Amino acid sequence: MHPLVHDLVQDAVPPLGGAIDVHAHYLTDRLRTAMTDAGHGMPDGMPAIPEWSPRAALELMDQAGVRAALLSVSSPGVHFGDDRAAAALARSVNDEGLALVERYPDRFGLMASLPLPDVPAAIAEAERALDAGADGITLKTHYDGSYLGDARFDPLMELLDERSAVVCLHPTSSPCWEATSLGHPRPMLEFPFETTRAVANLALSRTLERCPRISFIVPHAGAALPVLADRIAAFALMAQPGPAVDVLVVLRRLYYDTAGFSLPRALPALLHLVDGDRLLYGSDYPFTPGWVVQALAQGLAEDGGLTPPQQAAMLHGNASRLFPRFAVQSAV
Predict the structure, then answer these.
(1) How far apart are alpha carbons 16 and 62 in whole angstroms?
(2) Distance of alpha carbon 91 from alpha carbon 293, whole angstroms
(3) Which CATH number is associated with domain 19-322?
(4) Fewer Cβ in 10 A, N or C end of the chain?
(5) How confident is the model at residue 13 (pLDDT cuts 50, 70, 90)?
């Protein structure tokens, strides 16, 4: 058993003490039905679609010490092959998410879903959702085999840059997962490499340079980026015509959440790439079960390897700058 997945100790004081969770998911009845009808009853090879309700989420947040959670739709997203159905589903889940924000404005935020790869529809939904009060946007690593950074997504990226949007990246099953997942659920191996592949393409395509006002959040302590950043940077120097992308510089401008098993190795590795002002807390609930969320939160609180200022910045200080409406609530 992983050393951080231990018997949960019921502490009187929640371990996180006012955290802002930037990597939390929600499910609606319509989304659940659409996933099941499209053959995603075991999403990305996981055993089942997890249960989720506002009440259960708030109870876990209180137990762990999470003051606010930015909700997003996880993989496989909202597009199951039909552009019109995807646009309608994106609007539905976003409207239900906005209703949750209206009901619990101090506890929930929304990272809106888009019906990609239909770029015009995605642009329309991004504008609508942001104008309606969404706190940001969530994007999958690839859509129909085209990775973020592909030129087909440039019009959307330009809009998000104009809006100074916060964008949470989330991995999904790779286009060739049948050949590469080795029969295991894709979150085990495929998700970290999906994230790394998408961020590398965003950097090498110069999308990150062209769209500096987008605040990208990279999940899972940067996935494989802390280990591969120098390799990617070296190949950028050798292989690209003209002035090379300074990969390390653009990677240091991104934000990174701690969702998943960021300890004992991933978070220390990430801190060799970025400073503490780039760290954010993430739970990945409910795709990470509640008892695991609490155990991992306890590990971050007790032995995260962060200085007290870094710990405070990771838990709520950095997120307060990205999501100013939560700043007052986080300063406790």
Answers:
(1) 10
(2) 29
(3) 3.20.20.140
(4) N
(5) low
